[in-house]
Write a structure and sequence with these properties.
This protein is an alpha/beta fold and 504 residues long. The protein has 2 domains: 3-161, N-utilizing Substance Protein B Homolog, Chain A; 277-503, 3-Layer(aba) Sandwich (Rossmann fold), CATH 3.40.50.150. The chain is built from 24 helices and 12 strands. It has helices spanning 7-20, 31-37, 40-55, 59-69, 74-89, 91-101, 111-126, 131-145, 148-161, 166-174, 180-187, 192-204, 212-219, 237-241, 265-269, 277-288, 311-323, 334-344, 362-365, 391-394, 397-417, 437-444, 455-462, 488-491, and strands spanning 226-229, 245-246, 253-255, 272-274, 301-304, 326-330, 352-355, 370-376, 418-428, 450-453, 484-485, 497-503. Strands 5, 6, 7, 8, 9, 10, 11 and 12 form an 8-stranded mixed sheet that branches. Strands 2-3-1-4 form a 4-stranded antiparallel sheet. Helix 3 (40-55) runs parallel beside helix 5 (74-89). The longest helix has 21 residues, at 397-417. The protein is globular, with a radius of gyration of 25 Å. The termini are far apart. The protein binds S-adenosylmethionine. Residues 279, 305-312, 330-333, 336, 358-360, 376, 378, 410 line the site of S-adenosylmethionine. Keywords: Methyltransferase, RNA-binding, S-adenosyl-L-methionine, Transferase. GO terms for molecular function: methyltransferase activity. Belongs to the class I-like SAM-binding methyltransferase superfamily. RsmB/NOP family.
Length: 504
Amino acid sequence: MTSEHGGVRRRDSAGRERNRATGRNRTTAAPSQRTRAADPARLVAYEVLRAVSADDAYANLVMPARIRHHHLDRRDAGFATELAYGALRGQGSYDAILARCVDRPLSELDPAILDALRIGVHQLLAMRVPAHAALDQTVGLARAVIGAGPSALINAVLRRVSAQSLQEWLAQLTDGLTDDVKIASITESHPEWIVRSLRQALVAHGRDAAEITALLEADNAAPVVNLVALPGLGSLDEAFDAGFTPGPLVIDSALSPGGDLGRLSSVREGTVRVQDVGSQLVARALAAAELTSERTDGEERWLDMCAGPGGKAALLAALAAEQGAWILANEPTPHRARLVEQAMAAIPEDAWTVRTGDGRDVGREHPESFDRILVDAPCTGLGALRRRPESRWRRQLSDVSELGPLQRELLDSALSAVKRGGVVAYVTCSPHIAETLAVVDDALRGRTDLELLDAGAALDAVSLTGKLDAGNAGSPLPVHRMTAQLWPHLHQTDAMFLALIRKL
Ligand SMILES: C[S@@+](CC[C@H](N)C(=O)[O-])C[C@H]1O[C@@H](n2cnc3c(N)ncnc32)[C@H](O)[C@@H]1O
């Protein structure tokens, strides 16, 4: 800590600056000097929170750029990431605590001050940072980037926060409440509508509603980064030499010990890729599903209808290349279609083609043309909240119903485009009933030419353990028992939903 972060000088300085400050309470120091006063790791975390709340940025995209900009070493980068992501995930709990420590509604605070406070609270209550360092450093950061007046307010508020542990605060905040959803929303830092949706999803997918706490807790934990070696193209040897461990659920996968993945040449070359194990499992389950379709031209034709940015398309294309099949990877957004091409770059070119277009047109343009189709539908991503720390606060209940028509049209298009005897995998990284079971129900309604394959068994068949317990065997409705749902708290994957539909 530099001397200007020391207690006496800070208080003196804060007093002088506050008296002198303009209406916006900005420090009079030059911006470059102010920035230098802040600890770089905390500054990066703060800048990420600001970008998320002020510019609607995605934390996982901003973070690497800020880390590079401030030249953080590996340790500081880890600290900044834990701080920013933790503050974002914990925002619901932290804001409830802050509301008890600030003398006005949080909505009346300058958003920059609120972000600095959130960073302070996470350090004080959830990181192994000594309280005095959390306080001094956050106040120093605030003084450097916001101004002396606000830093005095932040100091006073964080002192109040530091008077109790997180558990004590949560007990106090939930004291007297009887609504389980409200309690979970505060203690596990999720919007109430998401708590309610996830609890309903657990029950509809045949699990116990009491698992909700474990599920919400899993959303709040930093996910381990998973790698996949593209079949026939990539090797994990380099990753294992670098300390990665074999993934326990699926072949050719590895778990990262942390740190910059760019140090692996196989990752740079694209033969080893970052991919959640849930995504690997559903892609492999489709590739291995039993077909009864007739091959007219000798090779299987596959389709990835919603391919961008290309994670599953790359794995499917590598599997297709191994099996002598070919895949069309479709994506409507041109820049995402380019990402698909980049993802495919390491795979022999005769195994794949990228199409830039609307998946809803494919069924009409190419009826009964494909043996295997993946519909990895645009969805709310409620199953990947641990990976996108800000998304739980940005998503709204209305998103679920807005996505419904598109999800249904894409699945209908796929069911037109699949050959008789071919299989469509309907996948979402959300377990929400409206995006999963309801979409499948609607697609099957009144159709006698479609049958559900046992998706749980299909996942088991491509897993290393052979017993993932992802099938929805306990679902209240028999038809739903053929679908499968992976869960972060059970499988340490994103909550991927899978239905396998065969056209008879
Ligand atoms: C869940 S993401 C797919 C993720 C991808 N399969 C992967 O593993 O990397 C859904 C994708 O669907 C695309 N999409 C949106 N509208 C679409 C449409 N009408 N037809 C096809 N794809 C669409 C989105 O642009 C997005 O890239």
